[in-house]
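Person: Show me a sequence?

Helper:
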Amino acid sequence: SGYMQNGPSVSGTGTLTAVYGEQGLVLTAGHLFEGKIGPITVEFNDGQRSGARILAIDKKLDVAALWIFAPKGIHPLPLAQRDPILGQQVEIWGYGPKRFRSFLARVARPIPMDGDIPHTLVAAQGVADHQVTIRGDSGGAMVYDGRIVGVHWGYRGADEDPRRCVHALGCSKLKDWLRSELDPAIWQRVAFSEN
């Protein structure tokens, strides 16, 4: 997982999910690129940095795919075959503010809102004190068994709402989106890394 900056003003989290030659594919949240987009930099845990360009973005699904120079010695985290199921324990990764953190969460029912696209969201509630993401975590991976099961964009539910939890674009919809947006050779690499 890496820390990303869009110009001087916006930061979030991204995850390397495929390497193609010297290049790498990073998944993150689409809302990080609202308005004017400045130079984008991805910085990894070990300090390696790369400029990035947006390969594909979907504001409605709140997801973006970035193209970077592949970092040395960092293995991509593959996409899972299917969305996690209710009650399953997942890890939620984030990089806000500028330090890696993860917490355990249990898959819960998403809190519905008008305009949601059916069967795209995965929600999870922090196991300890209903932990949720903090500023800068957006775009981080929801991980199960060493694979990405979702890319989270934030949480729904007020502080005192017992249903309050992190929401993510599930990997099933994510894979459909990537398949439709990416060059087939790059998609092949993402699909290949799943096995």
User: Anything to note?
Assistant: The longest strand covers residues 10-20. The mean pLDDT is 89. The two ends are 20 Å apart (CA to CA).
